[in-house]
Amino acid sequence: MATLLYRLGRACFGRRGLVVAVWLLLLGLMGGAAAAFMGETTNAFRMPGTESQHAMDSLRKQFPQAAGTTGSVVITSDDKLTPQDVAPVVKDAAAIPGVVAAMDPFQMQSVSPDGRYALVQVQFKDEIADITDKQRDAYAELPETYDGEGGTVRVEVGGELAQTPPEIGSTEAIGVAIAAVVLVITFGSLVAAGMTLLNALVGVGVGMAGLYALTGFVELNSTSPVLALMLGLAVGIDYSLFITSRYRQFLVEGVERREAAGRAIGTAGSAVVFAGATVVIALAGLSVVGVPFLSAMGLAAAATVAVAVLVALTLLPAVLAFAGDKILPRKLRSTVAEKGGAEVEQGFGYSWGRLVLKLRIPILLVGVVGLGALTLPARDMHLALPDAGTAAVETTERQAFDLTAEGFGPGFNGRLMAVVSGDGAAATKAAVEDVAALVQDVKGVAAVAPPQFNQDGTTALVAVVPTTGPTDPATEDTVHAIRGKVADVQGADVALTGITAIGIDISEKLADALPVYLLLVVGLSVLLLMLVFRSVLVPVKAALGFLLTVGATFGLTTAVFQDGHLADLIGVDTPGPLVSFLPIILIGILFGLAMDYEVFLVSRMREDFVHGDTPRQATVNGLGHNARVVTAAALIMTAVFAGFVFAHDPIIKSVGFALAVGVVVDAFVVRMTLVPAVMSLLGRGAWWLPKWLDRALPDLDIEGEKLRHALDGTAPDREKVAVG
After folding, report:
1. How many domains are there within the chain?
2. What share of the chain is helix, strand, coil (3-state, %, to 5)?
3. How does residue 534 score in pLDDT terms, banded at 50, 70 and 90?
4. Do residues 92 and 129 share a domain?
5. Are 600 and 637 a contacting pair, CB within 8 Å?
6. Cα 418 to Cα 494: distance, rounded to the nearest angstrom
7. How far is 105 from 144, CA to CA, in rounded Å?
8. Are the beta carbons of 414 and 469 closer than 8 angstroms?
9. Residues 450 and 546 grouped into a single domain
10. Domain shared by 464 and 420, yes or no
C-alpha cells in the first residue's frame, strides 16, 4: 500500500494544476447539485419493528386524519379564560395551511381546573417530514398578544412542529479559528497553516454539498449534516496536518520536494488511509444496529470522512507543490537551502517520554484509577429522545412545555395514544371500552380521554395522560404496565404509540444494541491493529485504553448534562437524560479517532524497534517524533468539537461536548501517557506474535518499511518493488 500511495503522491505533486482543477470542478458540481436538489431534513425518529411504529403505520392506513403531525398551543392568563379569549387563537390555528382541525379547548375540556390555562390541539394532515417551511413559519407566528376580557392573554406553541432543526451557524467558526491558531503555532508558517486548513475545507465543502444534494432523495435526520460537518472538519484538518508534518520532516532531512511529497503520502498517508478506514467502518457499522435514522447518520458522516481522506491523499500534495519552500519557517528555509538539510532539536516529546517511563508504575495506577472514577456517574446514565423540557428557556417550545406542566401536570407533555383496531365497528367499540377501563386502573395514569373513531368505526384512538413527564423513568414503567394490561383485550388489536412511546421504544432498542456494537468495535480494533502492528498485546492494550476513554467520556457527559454539575458553564439550561443515540454514536467516532493516535504514536515505536532500538528507546522515540503533531491534532479536534458546544440545540451541544472530552482523554491521558507506560512495561513482549499467525496475516506495510527498503536498494530481490 505504501508503494502505491508513494506513486500517487508523486503523480499529484507533478500534475498539481490538473489535480487542483479537478477538485475545484468537483466542488462546483457538488455545490450546484446541492442548490438544485436540496430537500428538507427531519426531526422524525422512526423505528421499524417496535409496537409504537406498528401502531403509527396502522393509523396511517385506517385513520389517516389522526396520523399527521400535531401541535399544542398553550393559552394562559392571570384571570380565568373565557371562550372569547381563546376563539381568535383557535381561528388562527385552523387557518394554517395543512391543518385539518384545531380543537376548541372548552369543547374538548382541555382547560385547567383553575381556568387559567387552555390547550388547543392542532392536527395537521401531513407527517412531520412533509411539513413545509411555510407551515412551520405560520405555526411559529401564533404566539402573539391577544386582548381577552380579563386582560392580556399569553400564547405559546409546542409539539412536534415547534422543534426547530439545528442550524449550522457562527459557533462552528470558533473551533475553526482556534484550529488555525494551533496550526500556525505548530508549523511556524502562515502558508503551511493556511494551506492545511484550506485543504480540509475543500474536502468538507465537497462532502457537505454532496450530502445536502442527497436530501432531495433520501430522508435524513436534521442532526446528520451537523455531525458530518463536525467530524469532516476535525479529521480533514488532522489528516492534512499529519501528512504535511511528515513532508516537512523529509524536506528538513534534505529530500527533494517531489520525492518528499511521495514519501510523505507513502508513509503518513498509509496511516491516514488506515485511520480513515477505521472511522468509516465504525460509522458504517452503525447500520448493523437496525435503526434507519442512525444508519443514515453514520453513513453520512462516513462519506464525509472518506472524502477527507481522498483530499488529503491527492489535493494536498498538489497544494504542497504550489507552496514551495514557504511550507517551512523562514529560519529553516535558509538552512535547508544552504546545507541541503537541517538538524531538529529534541523537543518536549522526548522529555515527556523519559518522564513517563521513569514514573510508569505511579502513572499507570493514577491514570487507571482516575479514569475509573470518572466513569462512575455513567452507572446512572438515563437515555431518552429529547423533549422540549431541555430546550433553551427563551424558545417558545420550552415556554409551552413549562406552561403545560404548570397548568395541567407534567404528563400532558407526554400523552400516549392507544390505537384500537377491530374487525368491525361493534367489536372495536367493545374493545375500546375494555381498554379505557383497564388503562384507567394502571398506576401512573392520570386520565383517559374519550375515544375518537375513524369514519368506519373500525379504528379508535384513545389518548392516555400519564402522571409523569415524557422522559421521566417512571413513564417507561407506565408504558410497559399499560401494554401488559391491554395485551389480552379480545376482539381487537391494541398498540400504544405517540411521541413518548416512540421515544421509549427507540431508547430501549438502542440500549440493547449498545453492548453488541461496543463488542463489535472492540473486536474490530484488536483485529485491525493486529494487522498493522503484527502483535497480540499491542491491540489488546489499545482496546482496553479505548474502553477507559469511553467510560470516562460517558461519566463526564452524564455528570454535566444529566446531573447538572458545571452545566451553567456550557449553557445547559435544564439537565436531563442524554439523547438515546449519543453513546452509540460516540463509540463509533471515538473508536476511529483513538485508532488515529494509536497508529501515529505506536507505528514509530515499532519502526525504531524493528531497526534495532531497545524497547525503551523505541518508546521514547515514538513520543519524541510524534508528540508535537499528535498534540496539535488533538487540540484541533477538541477545538472543532468544542465549537459545537455553543450551539443552541441540546443534542448538538451534548455531542460536541462528549467528543471534545473524549479526544482530550484519549489523546493526552490514554495514548500519550498510559500507552508508553504500558509499552515500556511489556518490553520486547509487546511485539510478540505467534509464527503461524504471522504467516496468516497479510502485511499492510503501514509504516512504509518495504517502500524505504526499495528506495534505499536494501531489500532482498524478492521484496524489491518498482517505485517509479
Report:
1. 3
2. 70, 10, 25
3. confident
4. yes
5. no
6. 7
7. 18
8. yes
9. no
10. yes
